Amino acid sequence: MHKFMEQIELIDHHCHAVTNQDLDRATFESLMSEGDRAVPGCTQFDKPLGLMMGKWCAPVLGLAPHADPDSYLSARKALGAREVARRLAGQTGVNLMLIDTGFLAERLYDCNEMKAVTGIQTKEVIRIEALMEEVARSGITSGRELALAFVETLGARSAFASGLKSIVAYRTSFDIPQSRPSETEVFLAADEWLRQLADGTSKRLEDVTLVRFALWEAGELCRKHKFPLQLHVGIGDRDIFMPKCDPTVFAPFIKDMEDWGVSITLLHCYPFIREAAWLSEVFSNVYMDIGVMQSFAGPFAKKIIGEAMEITPFYKQLYSSDAFGLAEMHYLGAALFRKGMAEVLNGWISTGDVTANKAEQIATAICSGNAKRIYNL
Length: 377
Ligand SMILES: [Zn+2]
Fold this sequence. Notes:
- With about 375 residues, the protein is an alpha/beta fold.
- It is about 50% helix and about 10% strand.
- It has two domains: about 1-20 and about 80-375, TIM Barrel (Alpha-Beta Barrel), CATH 3.20.20; about 25-30 and about 45-80, no CATH class.
- The protein has helices at about 1-5, 25-30, 50-60, 70-80, 80-90, 110-120, 130-135, 145-160, 170, 185-200, 210-225, 250-260, 275-280, 295, 300-310, 325-350, 355-375, and strands at about 10-15, 95-100, 120-125, 165, 230-235, 265-270, 285-290.
- Strands 1-2-3-4-5-6-7 form a seven-stranded parallel sheet.
- Strand 6, helix 13 (about 275-280) and strand 7 (about 285-290) form a beta-alpha-beta unit.
- The protein is globular and about 60 Å long.
- Zinc ion binds near residues 14, 100 and 322.
């Protein structure tokens, strides 16, 4: 399977763009971490992800494998941000990247620049909470006006997107009422949030009623455009309150979207990989990936991929890198997914659980076939 997986078409259904800036060591290491405080005297290179950068990325920058971090970062600086992005994010063998443009966009290449730098096709996925914040800061004066402008703006931008994404797990957790709020509830909540934005007591969208409103409007648009709603699940930075990030808690909303024929794609999922696998089994509209975990797990990528493969139907799994900021994460996401999946399927072939031919069909579905089907590509 290794040769087959090295050449297989990949669609990265969830990633972010690459930074357009040259990075000093502290900034580079902060992008290697989900934490926001460095430990004095310690380095992010001292974890599996750091080993993978040395093994896989150093040769792409012209260094020997496992070059030390200082040499690695000097080589990176000498090449410049654009050349590093071209070499690493441009040599993943990915055919299409669906890019979440809703987080720290000002520090990253936009979709068109990513395509120009990497030579890879890109399409946009819109983060609904970020869009509502953008609308709220555009001179809106009443809750009613905010709600109507959000619906109009999201509708207009969706026409050019490939999917919508929610970070409800971050902003309110999954443990919230999930029914559609009434118009009156939405207008009142929006009035109150605008007041809080104005007096500085709120910096971002965290109101449960407004997040629910955004989710249901997004569901309507996903139904109309026949593309998925992505949900962040599990691993992320410390803003996540992990005990309430279990996606099975969100089953009522998922079920309502199933009735509408809207696909829900669960992103990252760690440590709720088995919960996501179960949801994929019982709901016809649920899909999952283990994005970013193959890069974080490094030598254990095979274990993480194997956990997703335990019971998840093959027609419900997707590939993503969830790369953010560092071109290395695009490169490692693809390389380690190819390797880990080859190892899992080779194991199954060696025990006679699958034929080589069927293993190739499974890999093709997960790497690109399922994404083409549900994203209407
Ligand atoms: Zn992401």
